[in-house]
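User: quick one
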Amino acid sequence: MDASMFKINDKNRIIYAIIFAFLLSVPLFVKNLYYMHILIVTGIWVILVISKHLILFTGIFSLGHAAFMGIGAYSSAILMMKLGWPFWVAFPLSGIVAALVSVILCSVFLRVKGLLFAVITIAFAETTRLVFTHWPGLGGAEGLTGIPAPTPIPLPWGTSISFAGKIPHYYLVLITAALAILFVGRIEKSRLGRMFSAIEENEQLVESIGVHVKGYRLLSMTIAGLLAGLAGSLYGHYHSYIAPDEFAVWTSVMIFLLCVIGGMKSLVGPVIGAIFLTFLPEIFREAKAYEPLIFAVVVLLIIFFLPGGLMSLPQRLRQGISGLKNRFEA
Amino acid sequence: MSLLKIDNLSKHFGGLRALDKINLTIEAGKLHSIIGPNGAGKTTLLCAISGLYRPTEGRVLFNGRDVTKQRVDKRVSLGITRTFQSTILFKEKTVIENIIIGSHLHTSETFVGSLLGIPTARKEKLKTEQRAVEIAESMGLADWSDKLASELPHGLQRNLGVCIGLATDPELLMLDEPVTGMNPTEIATMMELIGKIKDRGITIILVEHNMKAVMGLSDSITVLSYGEKIAEGSPAEIQNNRDVVEAYLGGDS
Amino acid sequence: MIAQILLNGLTTGLTYTLVALGFSLIFGVARIFNFAHGELYMLGGWGVVFLFDRLGLNYGLALIITMLIVGLIGVILDRYFYRPFRGELIAPMVIALGLQLLIAAVALVVFGDMDVSIPSPFTGMTVLGTTRISNERIAVILISILILAAVYLFTWTTKLGLAMRAVPQNQEGALLQGVNVDRISHLAFFIGASLAAASGGLLAPMLFVNVFLGPWAVFKAIIVVSLGGLGSIGGTLVAGLLIGFFEAVSYHYFGSAVSEIGGFFLIAIVLLFRPRGLFGREYV
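Assistant: Done. Structure below.
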């Protein structure tokens, strides 16, 4: 019952506000470009895992999440490069495109459930990857290069915020991620979230009391698709290069596993998972080749010994310590 | 016009005739029991009425309206709700939360309002909680409101199932074997609570295996055996019906 | 030309059937969605590379030994990784994914990231009418059929095999009759894993081997099993062959793009309208 430590109640709100204020001020004292880069990449992963959490919260297991990210990335890039639209139009539109694709496809896909649905999402993800690879004008298997950075924001006093450097990217990603967390967090706590959670817990019961399960699932997938698409757009315009293989099934697997590693009881878990992923290579700088191995081992260790994910570590330790105390006092 | 009319309903599963040309009429405000030995088709009939099964032939009419092709959730919004014979609950949620989910069709707490956290939405949520507490009390769960559904003793878990059904504010409540597996005291309590539900004007269909339990409360009884209706009438008539006695002795009750 | 295409389709189709059948057995009997199945296929390829090419053993012997070793690895996976979570839904899935990553990562460290080609153990061509078919292909076809026939015989005639088939139908009933679920599960993994290894080992001389083949192989298996349905060896065979033929034909006429996209697309359509698959006896 100690996940309450991470719920958004009044006491925790202050803590989160402080953390956010701290993050806002990071560029003031962190000048190392590499660390900024890591933070930006983490921020994009955060948006992805948060949106994944929403669909897990609704009891849906999908391996096509990265495909929506790809759709957002490619849409955004095309809108800017081929149609010449400014980033501030392309960015939201790319999310909407991803959401639309999600609605249209999932209204059909959600006819099936469980594992079969997962298989269909695999087929969808693979098909999308192949489309990215073979559709003319998207750069083929090598990918799309030269994606422009976000259009500079004109300021009232003449100059403009240019996205040539990392700092504006950092704020863009930070604000989007914060909004995503707020948005999904509010959904999960609202009436809508209650329905999602009920569907996840007992689909048969929920249907018998008049809930149109498929409709709610569709909504969940669409919102998640929107967020994944936005993340894709940020990804593309930051790295200025995207390739089809970056949005394949294994990326969806990673996003899922990050939620598992971090813990799924609340939104804090996925965020921890995202942080884990980007800081992992840092911890094992020397042994680059062993990185996938470490990751795999961590996943297995978590599921065997810490099923609640890393976020449950404090609770587990506390239980362990009080367990030890009891042992000695008895 | 009767509340519910089943017209020549059949349900075949491949070669198996689970239900064969069933005709049934239920009047509003009554408590009607459907009994029969195991495998008679009672639950199948419930599933056909609630919408889980599409009948192979025949029609289901509710308040004069043909609902045969309607989805389950649509029928619930029309007023037909069913509960389950095994305990199917939201085990990881509290008793009150369980009932609140059940009342989703009848709350004025809007989705957007709830999402934005505006005061009206919060007021509505409180109202819904209030109503949930009342329903819990009516089924004897007042002391368990904030406990998790999984913590309820087995005997009371069925009560919660009925509460969730009541939360949908049904016109017709169908209870699937509510007292199966209960001891006589529990049966008496449950039947009393069901009686109170009937007093509130809700029409009830009771599917039960246990003939004795339903005798006292039913206005009328239908007896099924091997998918067919073999008798129908008042409790007194059914009790003295030879075919019924044979069906039960021939089965494994 | 047509004959050539059909033969190509037959060859790949049969190997797909092998790996898919392995996956189907594991899922049907042990109820595990073994994402790591593709890695077992990959290990099969490496086993043959090591034993046949590096150590110079007879190809058939290399194949059999590889199948046995990988089969054992399958049992280890079940015993130490999957067994603690029998009956659960999400945990086995996570473990499967974790195992896939683990095996692929270990393989990367051990074998490196290069592609490896090995010479074919069956050189030369045979002429059938107007077509010329490489002996390698004939060997693959024959060996595949042999293995499939062996599996079929085993599951339909031996006591153990029948017990294995009983479990998915009725787990409680099987338990009552004294069937040891763990044993049967291990058996399913043993056979399933060795089938995957066989598939990898057979295709190794024809294509190449590297440590990244896992995901591709397991996708193929999933596609074939979804198309053919669970619970039917014949169904898996038909589905495997269908996919093999479809790929061969569309690759020849339309190129790789269409054949790959088309394949997935078709599967999705079939599954949406017939979730049980073409010949399935139970729902996934």
